[in-house]
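Bench log, entry 3. Co-assembly request; chain sequences pasted below exactly as received.
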Amino acid sequence: MTTLFISDLHLDDRRPETTALFLDFLQREAPAADALYILGDLFEFWLGDDVPSRCSEQVAGALVQLKDQGVPGYFLHGNRDFLLQQDYASSAGLTMLPEEHVVDLYGEKVLLMHGDSLCTDDIPYQQFRAMVRNPAWQRDFLSRPPEERLQIALQARDASAEHKGNISMDIMDVNQAEVISAFERHGLERLIHGHTHRPATHTLQVKGQAAQRIVLGDWYEQGSVLRVSPNQYELAFLPAS
Ligand code: LP5
Ligand code: MN
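Structure output for the full assembly:
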């Protein structure tokens, strides 16, 4: 009995080796799992469900195959693929989750998020996030031709790289008060998220109780997976072949 959690794969046709590593994981390890949760940034960027790529099609096929083997897949948005919608999710057999989702893992309730909403010290990012999560902004963006969307996305990527070059690692990490407030909002003792690319298990105190925040890693250099079984949380790397 194992449930798998991954995030921040950043799949992109320019890096087919990462897609190959993920397809291998879906074929070798995932079929024995109870479920697979993808906590955002599955793709490097998502321009709309009407703009497929080779890797998005390969992944959809493999996830449908996994579902046919009895393993359901779940997806929640990251800051790169927040425009992924029901059409693609259906084609991949994925169930879409809200940005904060509580899952029952073998009798314990655990909070799942992408993690970007916890980075509240990064004010320019939170302003950008509020803009692009606005449904009217999304409708306008998605009504533009794919080539124009790509150009805007590339400009946003450049602006993001420049922004990150100008701020400290601390500002880009989660805000501790925001983390505690997420625990309190849901009354839970465990949180799983990605986004920061700093895989680790942190323990903290919430209202005098021990709580745990598990951070998934990215897939740029190797894979990263959290395996949850009834009595164990194992955060592991998947070596690139
Ligand atoms: O993604 P990453 O790791 O580089 O950094 C994130 C935050 N940046 C972002 C921005 C995305 O990378 C942009 C790509 C998304 C593509 C989606 C599809 C198309 C949507 C197009 C949107 C306009 O998420 C970064 C954080 C970092 O994580 C750590 O948490 O610091 O935040 C920023 O970079 C904040 C900047 O202020 C964002 C500036 C974007 C400017 C957009 C300009 C658009 C140009 C429009 C021209 C018409
Ligand atoms: Mn992210």
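The radius of gyration is 17 Å. The domain at 3-238 is CATH 3.60.21.10 (Purple Acid Phosphatase; chain A, domain 2).
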